[in-house]
Design brief:
With 656 residues, the protein is of the alpha/beta class. Helices cover 39% and strands 21% of the residues. The chain has a five-stranded parallel β-sheet, with helices on both faces. It has a five-stranded mixed β-sheet with strand order 24-25-26-28-27, sandwiched between helices. A four-stranded mixed β-sheet has the order 2-1-11-10, with helices on both faces. The N and C termini lie far apart (58 Å).
Length: 656
């Protein structure tokens, strides 16, 4: 497919766009960070100076072209600038998840052979020091926050500001070397290496070029008319491709204003304070927001609850059509405007979404009920379908064509086709270069013509051209009855209930479906307090008879909904267990992006799966867990197994 953006119009690297912004936007805000309750602001010209000085400082440390530089920490301007500095001298940034344990970091650092690490603070430095004996390639570490670092051995440990200062005093020869390296950058130069979440095995290093990031960023900005006036809140993991595109790629090519929160704990408050015009969040964030809304409503008086339900029922009927510019009739329009004044506007303001012009969710399928809830408020929330290997964008939803049951049409410059086995394939300028040190994996995923296998099953609607994703191809199967098994569809319906945090469905090659369920501690804890239910731990609350009864009602409600889908009605849940612990990335049950590792969970809790299918009423189990300080422990529990009512499948009428 011909490119909509002429390569002649492209700058050759992200650092080139930084220099362009420094001249074009100069004193316009580029980055903000909240520290000690005060927002600090840096203009594009200031950022260009900092990045250049730090790049010169890295040269002084001996960073070579092609070296890998690991970036570890929370969303901070300094870490984004560090990535730009690395790119400016021909090195390759490798962002890591800040909440990864030392062992996980060790795999990535060892796999890419990182010679340098730039870490946010003492916590991240300590993780690397813990595993440094297994990292022969590691030469130097740089830290940003000096608190707690005074007594460390600084022979190979350096403070960011000191490296930056060294760069500001660099010789003319060093500056000439910097310009030589900058001039050698091209669209084919590696821009970043991002590691996959490792849902099915070890994470893979995805090599993305400047062309991948720049063209994908420009195309997506043009698609949604994003300009340098947009405000974004950068709070998602810097190692995730979503944050890299939104907070780094798009920010650089069009000059988005990047706002970094003070901490994880202040994200909600900072979101309300910034009021971004362009917002991105995975489904889990929107699920959490909805849970907070429900809890807040339940804590209000009877009149306010009735008022909320009355206007939200109306919003569910006309909110999305109004957002799409459709006519709904004078009376419905007036009632919606009244609801906007009384309910919708205050609610959006409380969530920090009042100014959102374009919102996106991706990373996992979002429950249609959750998606429709936010659009009914008048928030222009869209789904996009993508992956790390695509530089995010595979499909997008044009304004006026936004639906909860599809992920839209092919993104600009992107082709999508469905394989004979139902798997989705794409080809685009964002398609990754290769998996690092993994030619076999590259060849299995990307063919000689550039078509990339997504691993997802789906189909394209003939009348609209929209793509519908069913589930991960490896997860889609059949029940022994021959009916389709697509677990994510049912799991998302369960997670619409604020009381349910996570769900895992089993049933492939079986005659019926069963489920593991995690309760949401905040939502159920709030409910328990209002109902005078005493508890001392997650385990005690999750096993309470009234909690199990409430979850059973949710499961049976979902069964009724699923029974109405002719293709997936066999996925009704007949038995379930409320787990005694939350599924946790530290225990390997989820990825760092909160994706369920279904196969591992099935193997780890095989005794629970067996009990669900053998008719047991309860099961005693022992489970190893990882505590916050890295220690291992074991918890035991006797779990009650519940049967759930299912809607009988309709039988064909007998011939008379």
């Amino acid at each position: 497919m011909a490119s909509r953006i002429s390569e002649d119009s492209l700058l050759l690297s992200i650092p080139a766009y930084l220099r362009h912004n420094s001249k074009k936007l100069q004193n316009a805000p580029a980055f903000r960070e909240k520290e000690f309750g005060v927002w600090q602001t840096w203009t594009w010209s200031e950022v260009e100076t900092i990045v250049t000085d730090f790049a010169l400082g890295l040269l002084d440390l001996g960073v070579r072209e092609g070296d890998f530089i690991a970036i570890i920490g929370r969303n901070r301007p300094t870490l984004y600038w560090s990535m730009m500095s690395a790119q400016m001298i021909g090195a390759i940034p490798v962002p890591l998840y800040q909440d990864a344990v030392a062992e996980e970091m060790g795999y990535v650092l060892g796999h890419c052979g990182a010679g340098f690490v730039i870490a946010d603070d003492q916590e991240q430095v300590d993780k690397v020091l813990e595993i440094q004996d297994n990292l022969p390639a590691l030469e130097r570490m740089i830290y940003i926050d000096p608190r707690g670092m005074r007594k460390y051995d600084h022979s190979k440990l350096h403070e960011f500001k000191k490296i930056q200062k060294t760069g500001s005093e660099a010789s003319q020869d060093a500056k000439m070397e910097l310009e030589r390296r900058f001039g050698a950058l091209s669209l084919d130069t590696v821009c970043v290496m991002l590691y996959t979440s490792g849902t099915t095995g070890r994470p893979k290093g995805v090599v993305l070029s400047n062309r991948n990031i720049i063209v994908s960023s420009l195309n997506s900005c043009k698609f949604d008319n994003l300009t340098d006036k947009e405000e974004i809140l950068s709070y998602l993991p810097i190692a995730w491709v979503g944050d890299f595109i939104f907070s780094f790629g798009q920010a650089a090519v069009v000059g988005l204003r990047v706002n970094c929160p003070e901490s994880r704990e202040t994200v909600s408050a900072d979101l309300r304070e910034i009021g971004p015009s362009y917002y991105f969040a995975p489904p889990r964030i929107f699920e959490t927001m909805l849970t907070a809304v429900v809890l807040r409503v339940e804590d209000t008086g009877v009149f306010k609850q009735k008022l909320y339900r009355y206007f939200m029922e109306h919003a569910a009927k006309v909110g999305a059509p109004l957002l799409d510019g459709k006519s709904v009739g004078l009376w419905d329009n007036m009632k919606y405007r009244l609801g906007e004044f009384l309910i919708y506007a205050p609610l959006k303001n409380a969530l920090g979404l009042s100014r959102v012009r374009v919102g996106y969710t991706a990373g996992e399928a979002i429950g249609p009920e959750i998606f429709d809830f936010f659009r009914s408020l008048g928030i222009n929330l869209k789904q996009l379908y993508g992956q790390t290997e695509a530089s995010v964008f595979i499909t997008v939803q044009p304004d006026g064509e936004v639906r909860s049951d599809t992920v839209g049409v092919p993104a600009p410059d992107t082709e999508v086709r469905i394989g004979d086995n139902g798997e989705v394939y794409y080809r685009s300028p964002g398609s990754f270069v290769e998996y690092y040190k993994n030619p076999e994996g590259t060849a299995e995923t990307k063919d000689s013509e550039g078509w990339v296998a997504t691993g997802d099953a789906g189909f394209i609607e003939k009348d609209t051209g929209h793509l519908r994703i069913i589930d991960r191809a490896k997860d889609v199967g059949k029940l022994s009855t021959g009916e389709m098994f697509a677990p994510k569809y049912v799991e998302n319906k369960l997670k619409f209930f604020p009381n349910i945090l996570e769900a895992v469905l089993f049933g492939a090659e079986r005659d019926h479906c069963v489920a593991f369920i995690n309760i949401d501690m905040n939502a159920v804890g709030n409910w328990a307090e209002r109902n005078n239910i005493a508890y001392s731990s997650y385990q005690e609350l999750s096993g309470h008879a009234k909690v199990l009864g409430m979850v059973q009602e949710h499961v049976e409600s979902v069964n009724k909904s699923v029974s109405e889908d002719e293709m997936l009605k066999g996925c009704q849940i007949q038995r379930f267990i409320v787990l005694h612990k939350e599924l946790d990335a530290d225990d390997g049950e989820m990825t760092r992006t909160r994706k369920v590792r279904r196969k591992l969970i099935g193997e780890k809790f095989h005794d629970l799966v067996t009990a669900l299918y053998d008719g047991s009423d309860s099961i005693y189990t022992e489970t190893e867990v990882t505590y916050e300080d890295g220690r291992k422990g074991k918890i035991t529990a006797t779990l009650e197994i519940r049967d759930a009512a299912v809607v009988a499948k309709s039988q064909p009428m007998a011939a008379e």
